[in-house]
Amino acid sequence: MFRKPSDVQAAARRAVAVNAHAIWFQLGVTDPFTNSIATKVGQIVVMDAYPKGNMPALGRSSMTMAT
After folding, report:
1. Sign of the torsion angle spanned by Cα atoms 56, 9, 2, 27
2. Contact 23, 6 (CB under 8 A)
3. How many angstroms separate the CA atoms of 27 and 19, rounded?
4. Residues 38-42: contacts with CB within 8 Å, 24+ apart?
5. Residue 41 — φ and ψ, nearest 5°?
6. 57-to-3, 19, 41, 44, 54 alpha-carbon distances in Å
7. Is 46 helix (H, G, I), strand (E, B) or coil?
């Protein structure tokens, strides 16, 4: 999610409401309370991460964006 840090809790609650499988917050955004909201319902939570920069750690050499 590309949200201001002050907006992540509301965004996480919406993601929980629609049964999202995972939430990924961009580089520089972290919130322990938001993490607990999402992990309690089984969502995968990634915070403070840059998707393209993390692809090698995920065993991928590139990233394809869905349209």
Report:
1. negative
2. no
3. 23
4. 38/12, 41/16
5. -100, 10
6. 24, 26, 25, 16, 5
7. strand
pLDDT (tens digit, 9 = 90+) per residue, 9-66? 998 889 889 988 888 888 888 899 988 988 999 988 888 887 666 666 666 555 555 4
Q: Is the distance from CB of 20 to CB of 37 less than 8 angstroms?
A: no
The answer to whether 24 and 1 are in contact (CB under 8 A) is yes
Please report, for the chain, the start and end positions of each structural domain, with discontinuous segments joined by +: 5-58
Pick the closest to residue 36 from 18, 59, 13 (CA basis): 13
Output the pLDDT for position 67.
Answer: 44
pTM of the model: 0.64
Can you tell me whether residue 7 is helix, strand or coil? helix
d(CA 57, CA 45): 16
